[in-house]
Amino acid sequence: MSSIPEDLSYTKEHEWVAGIDDGLTVTVGITAYAAEQLGDVVYVQVPEAGTTVAAGDAVGEVESTKSVSDIFAPVAGEIVETNSAVVDDPSLVNTDPYGDGWLFRVRVEGEPEDLLSAAEYGTLTSGES
């Protein structure tokens, strides 16, 4: 399994969140573990910029050759940017999940809850293999 970047936060739904420490805008993607479980990603639907979301809302989906999985908002706020490159080339989710394969950015409202550290996420995924 891929290594888990220490500088990110994670969700139980296998998403990563970057930039949580600045408290303003965060970047969201799916983890390498999720990408490996999905297999070859062939379609990505992301929320539109300007959409207001609550933490836990289903905001899009990732479709692979194996299945379709919902994408959830890990934090409450407003979608301020989406990654058009990953919509045009969904394989970026597989080849660079923590880089060019990011999905969307959210201007955070309130304090994020229920995010996991890299160590906690590692424990979660070790029990799911």
From TrEMBL:
<dbReference type="InterPro" id="IPR017453">
    <property type="entry name" value="GCV_H_sub"/>
</dbReference>
<dbReference type="InterPro" id="IPR003016">
    <property type="entry name" value="2-oxoA_DH_lipoyl-BS"/>
</dbReference>
<dbReference type="GO" id="GO:0019464">
    <property type="term" value="P:glycine decarboxylation via glycine cleavage system"/>
</dbReference>
<comment type="subunit">
    <text>The glycine cleavage system is composed of four proteins: P, T, L and H.</text>
</comment>
<dbReference type="GO" id="GO:0009249">
    <property type="term" value="P:protein lipoylation"/>
</dbReference>
<feature type="modified residue" description="N6-lipoyllysine">
    <location>
        <position position="66"/>
    </location>
</feature>
<dbReference type="Pfam" id="PF01597">
    <property type="entry name" value="GCV_H"/>
</dbReference>
<comment type="similarity">
    <text>Belongs to the GcvH family.</text>
</comment>
<keyword id="KW-0450">Lipoyl</keyword>
<protein>
    <recommendedName>
        <fullName>Glycine cleavage system H protein</fullName>
    </recommendedName>
</protein>
<comment type="function">
    <text>The glycine cleavage system catalyzes the degradation of glycine. The H protein shuttles the methylamine group of glycine from the P protein to the T protein.</text>
</comment>
<dbReference type="GO" id="GO:0005829">
    <property type="term" value="C:cytosol"/>
</dbReference>
<dbReference type="InterPro" id="IPR000089">
    <property type="entry name" value="Biotin_lipoyl"/>
</dbReference>
<dbReference type="InterPro" id="IPR033753">
    <property type="entry name" value="GCV_H/Fam206"/>
</dbReference>
<dbReference type="GO" id="GO:0005960">
    <property type="term" value="C:glycine cleavage complex"/>
</dbReference>
<dbReference type="InterPro" id="IPR002930">
    <property type="entry name" value="GCV_H"/>
</dbReference>
<dbReference type="InterPro" id="IPR011053">
    <property type="entry name" value="Single_hybrid_motif"/>
</dbReference>
<feature type="domain" description="Lipoyl-binding">
    <location>
        <begin position="25"/>
        <end position="107"/>
    </location>
</feature>
